[in-house]
Amino acid sequence: MSHTPSDFDIELRMLVEAVYLKFNYDFRDYTGASQKRRVLVAMREMECKTVSELQSRVLHEPNGFAKLLQYLTIPVTEMFRDPEYFQVVREQVAPFLKTYPSLKIWVAGCSTGEEVYSLAILLKEEGLLERSIIYATDINPKSLETARRGVYPIDRMRLYTENYQKSGGKAAFSDYYTAAYGGALFERSLIENVTFADHSLATDTVFSETHFVSCRNVLIYFNRTLQDRVFGLFHESLCHRGFLGLGSKESIDFSSYAERFEPLARRERVFRKAAP
Amino acid sequence: MSLNQQVAAALGTRRIEMVLIGGSAGGVDALLGLLPALQPGYTPAVVCILHVPGDRESRLAELFDARVMLSVREARDKEPIEPGIVYFAGSGYHLSVEQDRSFSLSCEAPVQFARPSIDILMESAASVYGPAMAGILLTGANFDGAEGICSIREHGGLTIVQDPEEAHASTMPKEAIRRCAPHLVLPLADIRAALPLLETP
């Protein structure tokens, strides 16, 4: 099917190319439709009439790219999002994890950190937190900063408490935070063994062997080529029979790695690296 | 002019490869009135999107699978769009159509309080399918879908809106009619009769 790109599409490709060349952030294999919408939002908010104008500001203005990056990445997340996922991790993954003397867990595309704290709480309740090292990675430094601070809006706590309880939480959720800095500050001990790091699934390589990779609602923003690259990274990083958790509507079926992972809980999107 | 003539005139030289149907309040019943009209062998892909509460798993595909002769399933991320399949947008995520004619999902903020958003799906499909698609907007109590119908029309697609007079909720079809004159404004029974006519030999 031949497709004549619109002026917008042409300019968008040039913007993405420019961002890659100048800042080494690779958005070239991001899903088109959603990226297009996000650039439109950036244009509106940054008051640019065309993508070319946006590109010029990104290249020539200090902080231009830092601003654009906030639109290109999507920090939409919550604690214990999809409680049934965390229930499966607790009931079906944790028992396996308990058999290892030390654990490495990778939260890939951790955004503003809600999932990192959720997993840390779960690991603590399962008696695994002390022997775990968690790598929490993202490409957005601002999101990582928010994740490190661990302060979330107090008005979200009701939803998070509900999610936590549905996921099989064993304590009172309010035990894990105190009201501070105009929000809910999560217990610092939860992230004692967490390394927050800048890592790009599009351009960087594997940095460690891991037992469990949780990467949720990140892959939907990637096209199939980039999805394949990322499944490749996870496959390489995961130990023999390691675990992989995805977002509730993400699928491995259309990837060339479909056969190399087997479902542990298909509905909740928890997979295991298949035996070689 | 008979309905057949009206539809033929509106279709012109278009060859429809996707029929996209959106609705909100009252949409399930409206679709139950429409989709059973589709016969096996229907060639366009049929994509349906209804607003459903985001906090629970949508069961629409299952509900309709038992009542529709074509194969029905929820549209999955990166799934290639195939002819003759009825796809439903799942809850909690926006659904888009990509240039390579596959679906993609995203968690961007709700649009017009809706996720999935009819506007997002229609706008993305319009830019890919152009004149090779038909957009149908049914009953609904908000404005989502009005922009989408305009976008389909701008890209050369065929646009059909349910007659607000008989729609369970008239806001959505009314707004679409106000913003861009759709090719056809029809009662549900006529949309049902028009569906098989959208398939050109």
The average pLDDT of chain A is 95
Low-confidence segments of chain B: none
The biggest sheet of chain A, with number of strands, parallel, antiparallel or mixed sense and barrel status, is: 7 strands, mixed
Q: What percent of residues of chain A adopt helix (DSSP H or I)?
A: 25-40%
| Structural domain tally of chain A | 2
Radius of gyration of chain A: 20 Å
The first-level CATH class name of chain B: Alpha Beta
Distance between the termini of chain A: 38 Å
* CATH architecture designation of chain B: 3-Layer(aba) Sandwich
The CATH superfamily of chain B appears as Methylesterase CheB, C-terminal domain
Largest interface: A-B, 25 and 25 residues
How would you name the CATH homologous superfamily of the largest domain in chain A?
A: Vaccinia Virus protein VP39
Helix and strand element order of chain A: HHHHHEHEHEHEEEEHEEE
**Which structural class matches the secondary elements of chain B?**
alpha/beta
Give the averaged pLDDT of chain B, no decimals.
93
Task: Give the CATH topology of chain B.
Answer: Rossmann fold
3D architecture notes:
Chain A is an alpha/beta fold. Chain A has two domains: 7-72, no CATH class; 83-273, 3-Layer(aba) Sandwich (Rossmann fold). Chain A has nine helices and ten strands. Chain A has helices spanning 7-23, 32-45, 51-60, 64-72, 83-97, 114-125, 141-149, 157-166, 224-237, and strands at 103-108, 132-138, 151-152, 177-180, 183-186, 194-198, 210-215, 238-246, 261-265, 270-273. Chain A is globular and about 55 Å long. Chain A starts with 6 loop residues before the first helix and ends with a strand. Chain B is an alpha/beta fold. Chain B contains seven helices and nine strands. In chain B, helix 4 (118-129) packs parallel to helix 5 (146-154). The longest helix of chain B has 12 residues, at 118-129. Chain B is globular, with a radius of gyration of 15 Å. The two termini of chain B are 22 Å apart. The chains are: A alpha/beta (276), B alpha/beta (201).
